[in-house]
């Protein structure tokens, strides 16, 4: 977990899962994959396996160690709802969020159907928790807009959209049941262009629906030079984050011990030769 994130709309990141696979055009120039693959084969590095999917149970207890409240982007280097992440492991990750409730969690996925289905069933205990925000990525009409519909069908206290990288004009968007919208362009080598008219259209729709609008970046090869102002204004609108008292040190230590037992039990429960066994990262 990174205590200080450079992502404009969060404070920190937490990665109990690492790695992913591409499923739509928004994945083409994945920043996480580019970063991870730089370290493939480097002995002892957290990304020695590059961007191969890995479960990292040793990371489960980390939010409990932070005494100061943070806004935490969950799995900035993966997708919690990837098809190969076991339901049982997803449940444990969310149970940690339930315990460390002095933080605000931002969970973002492109696997919207699985998010919806689990929030209706095995994750129902957390669906309405106000400190967990559930979101989907939206890059275009074909792949992105259906994710919004799936998210809307999921029980959740707060739903948000990460419209990044925005690859085309999305047209009219149904923002019913949506509580926050982030928009941004693609950055880095080969980045695809962002048209200002596409961004303005979403901003105006957010205004009409009274949905907070956050413009993250124009992107491009030199994203710092392009900046993040839209028509001369920086848009940093966010939902209100509710505050909750941090658990006392002794209580947190007890929670950490419990989560470490979960970690050990999860490892033991995965049979040798099981597909999930190959995903487990034994050391950090």
From TrEMBL:
<protein>
    <submittedName>
        <fullName>Phage protein Gp37/Gp68</fullName>
    </submittedName>
</protein>
<dbReference type="Pfam" id="PF07505">
    <property type="entry name" value="DUF5131"/>
</dbReference>
<dbReference type="InterPro" id="IPR011101">
    <property type="entry name" value="DUF5131"/>
</dbReference>
């Amino acid at each position: 977990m990174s205590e200080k994130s450079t992502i404009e709309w969060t404070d920190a990141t937490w990665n109990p899962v690492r790695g992913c696979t591409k499923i739509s055009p928004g994945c083409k120039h994945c920043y996480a994959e580019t970063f991870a693959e730089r370290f493939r084969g480097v002995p002892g590095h957290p990304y020695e396996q590059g961007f191969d999917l890995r479960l990292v149970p040793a990371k489960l207890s980390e939010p409990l160690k932070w005494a100061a409240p943070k806004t935490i982007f969950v799995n900035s280097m993966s997708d919690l709802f990837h098809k190969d992440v076991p339901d049982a492991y997803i449940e444990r990750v969310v149970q940690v969020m339930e315990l460390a409730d002095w933080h605000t969690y931002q969970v973002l996925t492109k696997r919207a159907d699985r998010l919806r289905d689990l929030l209706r069933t095995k994750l129902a205990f957390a669906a309405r928790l106000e400190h967990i925000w559930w979101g989907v990525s939206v890059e275009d009409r074909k792949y992105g807009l259906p994710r919004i519909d799936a998210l809307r069908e999921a029980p959740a206290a707060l739903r948000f959209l990460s419209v990044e990288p925005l690859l085309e004009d999305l047209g009219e968007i149904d923002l019913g049941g949506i509580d926050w919208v982030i928009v941004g362009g693609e950055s880095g080598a080969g980045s695809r262009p962002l048209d200002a008219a596409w961004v303005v259209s979403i901003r105006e729709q957010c205004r009409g629906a009274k949905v907070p609008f956050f413009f993250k970046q124009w992107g491009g090869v030199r994203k710092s030079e392009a900046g993040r102002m839209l028509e001369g204004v920086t848009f940093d609108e966010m939902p209100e984050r509710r505050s909750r008292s941090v658990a006392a040190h002794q209580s947190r230590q007890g929670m950490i011990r419990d989560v470490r037992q979960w970690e050990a039990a999860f490892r033991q429960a995965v049979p040798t030769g099981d597909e999930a066994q190959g995903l487990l990262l034994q050391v950090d």
